[in-house]
Each structure stands twice: as structure tokens, then as C-alpha cells.
Amino acid sequence: MIRKFFVITALLFINFLSNAQETTDTVDMADTMRSNGKIYVVVAVILTIFAGIIIYLIRLDKKMTKLEKNQL
Amino acid sequence: MILNETIRNLYFHVCMWFSMMILFTVSVVNAVKYLNKHDLKYDILSKQYATVGIVFGLLGYATGAIWASFTWADPNQTFVASFGAIAKDPKLIGAAIALLIYFAYLVLRGSIPDMDKKARIGAVYNIFAFAFLFPSIWIIPRLLESLHPGGEGNPALNPKDIDARMRMIFYPAILGWTLLGVWITSLKVRMAILNEKKLLHS
């Protein structure tokens, strides 16, 4: 449980790393995430929320299954 | 700081925080009810609302990190330098403190085996945690300079901040996300009640 929390927290900051990986060969501020009015940032945000809620619900489902099995 | 199309994150990132605040408010109301009536039902409600509130807070933080890294972060600087410039923002620190205090709520509850004691100490701590939301996310961030909008008034509620057409979507979106949180909470509450019954009958 605690280890999962650490992994999730580490994943939260992984997108900062993507900035560091920009090399000098590429034109600054012209990567995919900044193209088309930065719309892909919105995509990333929506996917994060979707993934977060779905993972949370799956975990809830697992707990519920465990509860059902114990009752029988 | 140029937002461009990322202003659409208003319907997601900002709504997460609004939902979190509403869920925490419901949680503290139930904590007070528990202290009044000593009915374990209120304790379950209080705990589950706080848990789902934390999930929304974490999602708000994660989405905020993504949003910030493409609007605030300076791509011409190194990772450490641009991260350092963002991370000292008072709103981020305030929100992190508020969430950590709520994490401690779960840890505290988990460390007490006795059900009634857990409920009573949990309810009292819940009130403290909620009270700490005031300075950490509502007062101090507004007093200090910050990259995050909303320092001059009410974040996202200021009529000068966003267009009326956006608010037409934004307010129902807050309601929708909050109701999603309430639904998840209701699932968790039903599960917790089943668990409780099993404990009592065994």
C-alpha cells in the first residue's frame, strides 16, 4: 500500500522529466505537447483523471469481490 | 505564461479541487454529527468522503503538475532550475500540506484498532484537518505572490477571469465531478457497512 503511494507520487512528477530531456537540437517550445495551442496538455490531463478514477474503481471492485467471497 | 487551449483544463483540474473541497466539507459535517450522536454510520460517511476527497485532491495535483510543466516551466532551462521555480509556489506548497494532513488522517485511523476510539479520534482530527484547509489553501496562497491565478480574488469565481460562456460549462462541470465523487463514496459506504455487519455477526 505504502509502496504503491510512493510509485504514484513518483509518477506525478515524471512529466517534469520530459522537459529536461529536450535537447538543443530541437526548436524550443516546438515539441508535440506545445503544438496546436497546447491542446495535448488538455488531452494528458483528461487521460490522467480518467486513468486515476478507473484504477481507483478497479481497486474498489477487487475489494468488493473479496468481501463477497468471504461472505459465502 | 500563455495558456492557449489549455484553458480547457478549467473543466478538469479546477473542478477536481472544487469537488475535493465539497467532499471534505461533507466529511467534516459528518464528523461533527458523529461527535453529537455517536452513531458509527456518520463515522463511516465521514471517513469515506475524506478518502474520495483525497483521491480528487491527488488527481488535482497530478493534473496541475502536467498543466504547470507546459505553461509555467521554462523549456530553455534545465529540469532542476525550472522545477525549482515552480515548486516554491505558495499555492502548491499549501495544497501539498493540506493533502498531507489528510493522509495523516488515514494513517491515524489505521493505527487505532478499537472501533469507537478510532471513530472519536478520527472525527476530532477530521475537524482539525478541515480547519487547516483555511490557512493552507484559502488564506496564505492569496497573501503571497504566485504564478497560480486567483490571488487577487476568488480563484475561478472571479467574473474577470473567465468568459461567461465558459462559466456556463464550468459550474455544471463542478456539479458533475462532485456527483461522481458522491457516487464513488456511496459505493464505498455501502461496502464499509457490509464489512461492519460482518464484523458484528462473526
Explain the layout of strands and helices:
The complex is a heterodimer of chains A (72) and B (202).
Chain A: H1 2-12, H2 14-20, H3 39-71
Chain B: H1 13-37, H2 40-71, H3 79-87, H4 90-110, H5 115-143, H6 164-201
Please tag this protein with its features.
heterodimer, A: 72 residues, mainly alpha, B: 202 residues, 6 helices, elongated
Structural class of chain A comes to mainly alpha
Number of domains of chain B: 1
Q: Which band does the percent of strand residues of chain B land in?
A: under 5%
- In N-to-C order, the SSE pattern of chain A is HHH
How much strand of chain A? Answer: under 5%
Q: What is the SS-derived class of chain B? A: mainly alpha
User: DSSP helix count of chain B?
Assistant: 6
Number of strands of chain B: 0
Percent of residues in helices of chain B comes to over 70%
**Cα end-to-end separation of chain A:** 26 Å
Tell me the count of domains of chain A: 1
Shape annotation of chain A: elongated
Major sheet summary line of chain B: none
Tell me the Rg of chain A in angstroms: 19 Å
- The SSE order of chain B reads HHHHHH
Largest interface: A-B, 37 and 37 residues
Q: Uncertain spans of chain B, ≥5 residues at pLDDT below 50?
A: none
In angstroms, what is the radius of gyration of chain B?
A: 19 Å
The multimeric state of the shown protein is: heterodimer
- As residue ranges, the low-confidence spans of chain A are none
Terminus-to-terminus distance of chain B: 60 Å
